[in-house]
């Protein structure tokens, strides 16, 4: 639970764009010489529609010890991780490990790798892709791509990692920009059975809305971090086929349209991006995690992969109210995803 002082600090640090811009500019200038000696090789970007195991996969890869990622210890100044670490060196910051708000059994503390990178994109490109209705895929400015290269190296400097690891579902909007910034980037896209993933999204949406009603700070906090997958400030990705502003989030069809639009967009990337993409069938990983450790390690460029034996298949739910035409479309895309998914020998 954040204290009143913590909330005020987060509001100042994350809620005002000029503050965020200033912290990044100061951080970038202060460490320019150090950045010249850092090479960001083969960064890994875990990105997909939420509720497909993105957090579990990111943590499994991070456990290899080869990667640097942002964590809650970098808050509330995620664009100045090195400066904030130096300023906060004398602070006794400790939070007991606890279950995250999703209610899915995953726990975290200040040192858990987390999806904080979107703050960078919101500050640099938010006026182009972020609207009240949706998050739209838009071209990324060249100076933003250059700044992102520096940002990744700042994270490597802060966390002393050889390679950068990110879990940011909003990166489905900009795979081309990621590959332009890092031609050797590795894009990992986990996916699930469409109806089951849609059901999970709807369930999380209801839960997150209830939590935000109890504590309005939660809604602002999630919006500052760029998390719009579900909850009080839910906004879909604005790909072709996405649900419109007037459609009900209580209906499974809304979430099926989210699933369809995102995955058909990921499947339709140009050759330069497709060469860097790896699709992961999360249902298959859960059914045979150990059998996929070596293939996932190869995809991520690792000598070894921490055990996936702890993965458990998500609970399955029936939904008789789904539009049959939407289900047929989703199943066709799911078959195409399975055709491109990494499989164990």
Draw up the topology in text.
Elements: H1 4-15, H2 17-30, H3 32-35, E1 44-46, H4 54-62, E2 67-68, H5 81-87, E3 98-99, E4 107-108, H6 118-129, H7 142-159, E5 163-167, H8 175-181, E6 186-191, H9 194-214, H10 216-224, H11 252-267, H12 271-274, E7 277-281, H13 282-287, H14 289-300, H15 324-340
Parallel strand pairs: 1-5, 1-6, 2-5, 6-7
Antiparallel strand pairs: 3-4
Task: Give structural attributes.
345 residues; alpha/beta; five-stranded parallel β-sheet; two-stranded antiparallel sheet; 7 strands; 49% helix; globular
Write up this protein.
This protein is an alpha/beta fold and 345 residues long. The protein contains 15 helices and 7 strands. The longest helix has 21 residues. The chain is globular and about 55 Å long. It starts with a helix and ends in a 5-residue tail after the last helix. About 1% of the residues have low confidence.
Can you describe this structure in just a few lines?
This protein has helices spanning 4-15, 17-30, 32-35, 54-62, 81-87, 118-129, 142-159, 175-181, 194-214, 216-224, 252-267, 271-274, 282-287, 289-300, 324-340; strands at 44-46, 67-68, 98-99, 107-108, 163-167, 186-191, 277-281.
Q: Tell me the distance between the termini.
A: 46 Å
Strand order of the largest sheet: 2-5-1-6-7
Shape: globular
Order of helices and strands: HHHEHEHEEHHEHEHHHHEHHH
Main sheet: strands, sense, barrel: 5 strands, parallel
Low-confidence stretches: 99-103
Rg over CA atoms: 19 Å
SS strand fraction: 5-15%
What percentage of residues falls in helices of 4 or more residues? Answer: 40-55%
């Amino acid at each position: 639970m954040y204290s009143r002082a913590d909330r005020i600090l987060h509001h100042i640090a994350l809620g005002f764009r000029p503050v965020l811009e200033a912290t990044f500019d100061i951080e970038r200038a202060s460490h320019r010489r150090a950045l010249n000696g850092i090479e960001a090789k083969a960064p890994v970007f875990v990105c997909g529609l939420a509720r497909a195991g993105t957090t579990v996969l990111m943590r499994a890869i991070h456990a290899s010890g080869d990667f640097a990622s942002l964590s809650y210890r970098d808050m509330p100044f995620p664009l100045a991780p090195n400066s904030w670490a130096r300023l906060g060196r004398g602070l006794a910051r400790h939070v007991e490990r606890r279950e995250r708000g999703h209610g899915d059994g995953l726990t975290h503390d200040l040192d858990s790798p987390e999806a904080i990178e979107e703050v960078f994109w919101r500050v640099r490109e938010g006026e182009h892709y972020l609207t009240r209705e949706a998050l739209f895929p838009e071209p990324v400015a060249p100076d933003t791509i250059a700044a992102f290269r520096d940002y990744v190296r700042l994270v490597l400097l802060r966390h002393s990692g050889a390679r950068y690891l990110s879990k940011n579902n909003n990166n489905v909007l900009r795979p081309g920009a990621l590959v332009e910034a890092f031609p050797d980037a590795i894009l990992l896209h986990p996916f699930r059975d469409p109806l089951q993933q849609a059901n999970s999204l709807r369930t999380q949406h209801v839960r997150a809305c209830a939590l935000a009603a109890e504590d309005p700070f939660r809604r602002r906090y999630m919006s500052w971090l760029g998390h719009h997958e579900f909850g009080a400030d839910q906004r879909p990705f604005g790909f072709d086929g996405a649900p419109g502003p007037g459609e009900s989030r209580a209906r499974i069809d809304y979430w099926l349209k989210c699933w369809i639009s995102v995955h058909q967009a990921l499947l339709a990337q140009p050759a330069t991006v497709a060469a860097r993409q790896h699709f992961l069938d999360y249902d298959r990983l859960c059914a045979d995690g150990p059998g996929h450790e070596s293939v996932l390690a190869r995809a991520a460029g690792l000598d070894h992969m921490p055990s996936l034996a702890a993965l458990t298949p998500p609970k399955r739910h029936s939904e008789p109210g789904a539009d049959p035409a939407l289900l047929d479309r989703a199943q066709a895309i799911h078959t195409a995803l399975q055709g491109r998914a990494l499989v164990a020998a």
